[in-house]
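subagent[fold] <- orchestrator: predict structure for attached chain, return tokens only, no commentary.
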Amino acid sequence: MNKPALWTKSFIGISLTNFFLFMTFYFLLVTLPVYVLHELKGSETEAGLATTVFLISAILIRFVSGQWVEHFGKKKVLIASLVIFFIASILYPFTNGLAALLVLRFFHGIGFGMATTAAGAVVADIIPNSRRGEGMGYYVMSMNLAMAIGPFTGLAIMNKWDIQAGFTVCAAVALIALLIGFSMKKDTVDSRQPASRFKLDLSPGNLIEKSSLPIALTGTFFAVVYSAILSFVSVYAEELQIGAVSGFFFVVYAIVIVLSRPFTGRWFDRYGANAIVYPSIVLFAAGLLLLSQAGGAGLFLVAAGVIGLGWGTLFPGFQTIAISKARPEKKALATATFLSLFDLGIGFGSFIMGIAASGLGFKMLYAASAVYVLAGVIVYYFVQKSKKDPDHFPQL
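subagent[fold] -> orchestrator:
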């Protein structure tokens, strides 16, 4: 029997939209601290606020974005969020002080939080149920590619030109995301309820999808460690005196994900979640251990590949479980729940891991993180044990 089509125009379109959203996010993630320090004459703490404020607004808006998607329709929310995201992207050259930048970052985070929630709901509808693990893996891969290309491009543009050229590129990338969003077919992102009946409900049951909460909290557990890679791997490379190759860490990471995705996604659908999650946890821990032992570029980049295979497979697996356990009308809320808790893990983890790094040093930090990740096997075991048929998902 032939498999239902995965690579449809709608699936490619929403994946590209996701790619350009996250490319802008990661582009600014590495360039804004330089802008704050050199152009706005701010401190390191103030530079960190530019990311913190963005994530806070994204997390807060996701708690209500799921309801907006459910009532107003996926396309309307997606387009509105992409418009907000684009407007914010073109305003960066006009920030002449830290206060203005932080207000803009909060506004930008609103667009990002809404867009990622709506896009997640769109792709959950598009992917055939029998290819859910494979499809979600490819969708998340667009974010992984952005994580490699965004920082690499941002640093290259800043080294060759300046931050203003970088802001222009960000605006262009955000515009591309908006144009692709407009091209999405309405029938793939239609509204479920009349907009006139909408009433915002701030009760816990409408802010968080309970069925997705266990696996979302499990993802948060691992996100704490992943934050140590996002935040400090370039600093660790400088400590190892291989700063010149630090930008290639996420390039190798992304290449491994691209090469492995055709296999891991299909195995997820064929053999179930557990057959993928447990080996991925072990690989993630092994990659962190290798990173802790790196003394040069060779082992440093090998660790990047192993981490890419481990965490790069684990994250889409968790998101697939989170969405698949929710009822069809709650998939947007499930996406918002998962991503919000994940971002909380990243934000909280960056702070905790920074304190740990100052006391332990980076080598010991990554070695201890490997042990922490292995303990996640126990966490996941009890989470999936508490649910009936954890290895198979309901038909949506």
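orchestrator: received. Logging for downstream: The first helix runs from residue 9 to 39. Residues 1-185 form a domain with the Growth Hormone; Chain: A; fold (CATH 1.20.1250.20).
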